[in-house]
Automatic annotation (TrEMBL):
GGDEF domain boundaries: 211-344
Key word Membrane present: yes
NCBIfam families: GGDEF (TIGR00254)
Enzyme Commission identifier(s): 2.7.7.65
Keyword Transmembrane set for record: yes
Assigned keywords, A-Z: Membrane, Transmembrane, Transmembrane helix
Protein name (record): diguanylate cyclase
Reaction(s) this enzyme catalyzes, per UniProt: 2 GTP = 3',3'-c-di-GMP + 2 diphosphate
Domain of life: Bacteria
Source species: Marinobacter lacisalsi
Pfam families found in the cross-reference section: GGDEF (PF00990), MASE6 (PF20966)
Spans through the membrane: 18-37, 43-62, 74-105, 117-137, 149-166
Length: 353
């Protein structure tokens, strides 16, 4: 299943972007408002910080609308925003109510940066706010009353814990939905969508490390008659049986998936076409030799396979699938239960079945 951190970050992007845009608007408006209020009370330095924050947020808003690097802009917002908040609470003329803004830190950090970085940044800035608080107020101040302190501490802890728990469970639900969306229900194998994600990642790796990559497209032969003769349930069992055979026989680094119906695909990483043909033929032989029975009767299974190689037959999944499919139908036309690789001139002739 594809729970690569990049995939999860990508999934979270639309809602993080929506939260960031909302926050930027709030910061622009709040900055203007508080700038005016503080200027009218003579706290001009604070007003300048607030107006600068508004201007900065307006610029970020323009950048965020078209960016492909949302995480960078989130950090470019969070650090100055939280730092301005720390300056505001450290200002001797600011009222104690300004500490209320600290409650936003865990909420905003988790919504924008997820559970890990969100928690780290929350704890850091809440710690800084605590140090500022202890430096600003004296034991004799009313705000240092144990009940007031308990209120503030418990409220901050609650919001931090709730934000974190929410983010952890949101991420879990997202992983589960992703797993369901990328898995074939019957066989438990990856479906086309997961095959595509895997292919894109392995294609980049193959070109970086200058390694070959091959694709097999396999189709069970005369599967309609398996269903007709033994029943649809037996057909389902045969598909699950074949999926298990693929799981057992392939390397952990390869990926077998169900393309649809009785058609399956395998991506063989670091594998040239010659080796891929050998692997395909071993699988074909294993299926032919397999002993699957229904009511004491053997279910005859065989498959036809088309093989294609990255770079030779195309540079994207669509082209490789088309090339392998074409060879698969050649295998069907030639009598089934065989592997058809790239044109024979590309191959070691002893490998063709
Ligand atoms: N039991 C079961 N059958 C399926 C499933 N998906 C597709 N099939 C059946 O697979 C059969 C495919 O039939 P065809 O496309 O005619 O192919 P075939 O009989 O395998 O013949 P060739 O591919 O030409 O060798 C159809 O009867 C489908 O109903 C499934 O999930 N379960």
């Amino acid at each position: 299943m594809d729970t690569h951190p990049d995939t999860l970050t990508q999934l979270a992007r639309p809602h993080r972007k929506a939260v960031l845009v909302a926050l930027l608007w709030i910061t622009i408006l709040a900055g203007i408002l508080f700038g005016v209020l503080n200027a009218s009370k003579g706290a001009l330095a604070l007003s300048v910080v607030e107006w600068s924050m508004s201007l900065y947020s307006a610029l970020l808003l323009l950048a965020v609308r078209q960016t492909h690097h949302l995480e960078r802009w989130i950090l470019a917002y969070i650090f100055p925003f939280f730092t301005a908040m720390m300056i505001a609470i450290a200002t001797p003329t600011a009222t104690v109510t300004v500490f209320g803004w600290v409650l936003l830190i865990p909420l905003v950090s988790h919504l924008l940066l997820g559970r890990r970085i969100g928690l780290g940044i929350s704890l850091f800035f809440i710690g800084v706010a605590l140090v500022i608080f202890l430096n600003r107020f004296d034991v004799s101040d009313a705000v240092m009353d144990p009940r007031s302190l308990a209120n503030m501490v418990i409220l901050t802890a609650c919001i931090t814990v709730f934000s974190h728990v929410y983010e952890v469970s949101r991420e879990r639900s997202e992983i589960e939905l992703l797993r369901m969306a990328q898995t074939d229900f019957l066989t438990g194998l990856p479906n086309r969508s997961r095959i595509k994600v895997f292919f894109e990642r392995e294609k980049s790796r193959a070109s970086r490390e200058q390694q070959p990559l091959s694709l097999l497209v396999m189709d069970l032969d005369y599967f309609k008659s398996v269903n007709d003769r033994f029943g649809h349930e037996a057909g389902d069992r045969a598909l699950v049986f074949f999926a298990d055979l693929l799981r057992q026989r392939l390397r952990a680094t390869d990926l077998a998936g169900r393309l649809g119906g009785e058609e399956f695909g395998v991506i063989l990483v670091n594998t040239s076409i010659n080796t891929a043909v050998q692997v395909a033929d071993d699988l074909r032989q294993a299926l032919e030799d397999a002993d699957l029975q229904q009511d004491g009767q053997p279910i005859p299974l065989s498959m036809s396979v088309g093989v294609a190689e990255l770079g030779v037959d195309g540079n994207n999944l669509q082209d490789l699938l088309a090339a392998a499919d074409q060879r698969l139908y050649e295998a069907k036309d030639n009598g089934r239960n065989q592997v058809v690789p790239a044109p024979v001139s590309c191959l070691d002739p002893s490998l063709t079945h």
